[in-house]
Amino acid sequence: MDILETSAYDRRQRRNTSCVLFLYLLPFFASCTLYFFLWIPDSAPSVLAAGIKAAPVFSLALLVFSYNGGRSLMGVAGGLLFSVAGDCCLVWPQLFIHGMGCFALAHMLYSVSFLSSRYSTTSSSSLFFILYLLLWLIGGGIYAYLVPFLRLDPEGDVLVPAIGGYILLIVLMATLAVRTRRPFLLLGSLVFMASDLIIALTKFNVVDLEYEKHTIMITYYLAQLMIALGDVKATLEEDADDLHKWKRS
Q1: pLDDT on residue 79
Q2: Quick one: CA torsion of 124, 127, 129, 131, rounded to 10 degrees?
Q3: Is the dihedral of CA 234, 53, 33, 219 positive or negative?
Q4: pTM here?
């Protein structure tokens, strides 16, 4: 009987947690809707445009912080805040390098978080090692393909090493996300890579993509949402494990 009661309690807790999490996500969905409805970035760069563009990711940073507290500032919440800074910089084309630097710092903090004890893994599989290899081959291949186009840019001397370092960091982040074996983090990192690839291919005139901004921002917001949810889910599972241990003691 105790086991049945515990199981029913756990199901109620999961339902309650899902409802609370959905309420916390309402600002994200509302600000995304506002962004795509107003489409401010098509107008002249402004503080208002930067604020509307950055609002969805800022709401995710608050979500992660509310669940994880101050420790998350050196992890996913901190990465989301650096992403907010990057979003604001990229509203102004002349701040592209600065924006890329902010996102590089975000990937570093994501990587630090994925290495923490909350994401420790004990099992390994050849399938994951193949995926690791594919990620690095894709990253290296993309960089090699982009270099000739980067050299044509007036700032090519800066962009060639800067883009190389950025690709290194995002592939490392994706590798560590795969290592966690958590679907949200894995998919979020892969979608993030896809979003950045589209930016690189279109910004440096490699391809001409219809609905470029729509594709970039939809994949970007989706990637950040999955990374934030993956981190929150890990915290909830950690808290549930601690509760079960306390009940057994």
Answers
A1: 96
A2: -130
A3: negative
A4: 0.87
